[in-house]
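Here's a chain:
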Amino acid sequence: MTSSAQAFEAIADQRVLAIVRLDNPTDAVVACRILANAGLHAVEISLAQPGATAAIAEAVDELEGAALVGAGTVRTVAHAAAALEAGARFLVGPCLDQSVAAWAHERDILYVPGALTPTEVELASRWSPLVKLFPAAGFGPGYVKDLRTPLPDIALLATGGVDLENTRAFLDAGAAAVAVGSGLVNASSLAAPDDLAANARRLLQLAAPATPTTRRQ
């Protein structure tokens, strides 16, 4: 079993979480395989997609040791329990549900709750080392910077409308990591697996911490 700390480190280390939400569970597993082979260490399968728990179970079985597979759109304890039974290594929610948070805490499972306002972010941070800022793109990287001023110790996962074009801006603004969904994985990208893999590698490059020789001016 992956501990909460281990799952957090897997996301925080690469500063990227890929979100897979496809209509076919087999396609979801294929997408996870491509992403893992490209080097991504954390992949979320949304429970909002058909056959999500079956896809999670298959992806976990295939990718164990290569990438952590978690469950997204976790809104209830029933969702969390079904995801954990399928083998999910972490849980992500669109909002904070304190019953889910308590349930996950008892089992040492990383639960990343969604939040938007300063009050919501502060409350969510009491339950998790990582808070999903959602929807991020509608407010932009500047909002991340604004939140970081009074809440500098809270790690934010920018989610919602994040893609290869704005990933670096969110990270430069102070996000601890980004979660990229349809901007990376969709029906069209799955039809071009080489391009999907290349985009995943590009995303990892964009998310890599800047060094003195590569830091943007």
In short: The first strand starts at residue 16 and ends at 20. The beta strands are 16-20, 42-46, 68-72, 90-92, 110-112, 114-115, 130-133, 155-159, 177-180.
